[in-house]
Amino acid sequence: MTPSVLLADLAACVGEGHVLTGNDADPYLTDWRRAITGRALAVVRPASRDEVAQVVRRCAAAGVPVVPQGGNTGQVAAATPDDSGRAVVLSLLRMNSVRNIDLDTDTITVEAGCVLQAVQQAAREAGRLFPLSLGAEGSCTIGGNLATNAGGTQVLRYGNARELALGLEVVTPQGEIWHGLRCLRKDNTGYDLRDLYIGSEGTLGVITAAVLKLFPLPRAQRTALAVTSGLHEALSLLQRARAGFGAGLTAFEVMSMHCLWDVTTAFPQQRLPFSATAEHSWCVLLELSDNESEQHSQDQLEAVLSAALEAGEVQDVVVAMSESQSVEFWTLRESITLALALAPACVKHDISLPTSRIPEFVRGTDQALAAAFPGVEMRVFGHLGDGNLHYNLLPAPGAVEADIQRLVHDRVHAAGGSVSAEQGIGQRRIEDLRRYKNDVELALMHRIKTALDPQSVMNPGKVLPPWP
Q: Is there a domain that residue 462 lies in?
């Protein structure tokens, strides 16, 4: 089948105005970090599950790769085509309906192109909470969140995207439809296909819809910023908060003070609510969600933070006194990535470690980097509560990014950690997967890919390194 014939067939499936080529396709061909730009035969924008199935069937018959794409907010270029120009980018942004909200089962069924923030709002309007929350929530989509098993700021309490999904609807690489939109909390009938597709980054099929868990809206939420002199003290505060708040501790974020200074420099309208001096090297943002009352949450927060002050775990604490002030605190945290994007160069790492090993890892790796790459500046922040750090740094001129990442990732691996905590593998981390996964793991992953997608139609060149 010639490209022109295929494009005509695809236009018949989705409408001529939704098959984009030339300059119209350009916005879909560069990753969020603007580091990788690919080429594509076309960008196709289906509006339904059936249209997705038709597009995939036609591409499979023509031997044309399919690259699923949601909000294109990923950090590892998993939704960006290669430079061959052969692939069809399958944008799911038109599939953005909330199909159903069931308050008896506490579920919401949404299409893959729904923006995360819209799902949060729909849940809130129904008197429920959908807890997945991340910096890109105004533009990332549920399909992308599930395809990457997104984490975010409330993993500590609610888990990653995988824990928040009960059922999926998926188009297979052959264009078949798996109707798996179940709202069951228990279903022990064989292999769990849902968990297989979640986190597969579009390499096994196209997620077109999902049944997601909802939770009661908390009666009260309290947010606080605490200043600590080091990560050991921050870890002690985490242990204290877990003991004092239990499941009510919904977020525990740690930020080096340099990160916050970057934010206030880049965005002068933002202010730190405390006077930060050199010895105050870290800041913790914690959130308590309470299902009893405002007074109960206030009493809990005061008890835990007062004890932390007395124990010397924190030097200063500021509690948000209003919802708007809480938003200001979270805006400081979420603006770190935007501030770092303004730097001339930033080497990023999305790592996870056993929480107990994080202070020593950061101390030792900071020292190793400073010795190997004089002039490097660390910019570390992340989700201390679940062991996920965004261990970023600003290199001195002449430093090679690959050398820096090798040093960091070797130390992560030696400490029993992972080189990708929540952002996935995509194109950017394939060599890391080859280096740090053992042969048995890689062989099993390739067998799954070959079994489900023998033509390698779905998102080739992502996640899996060539094998053997």
A: no
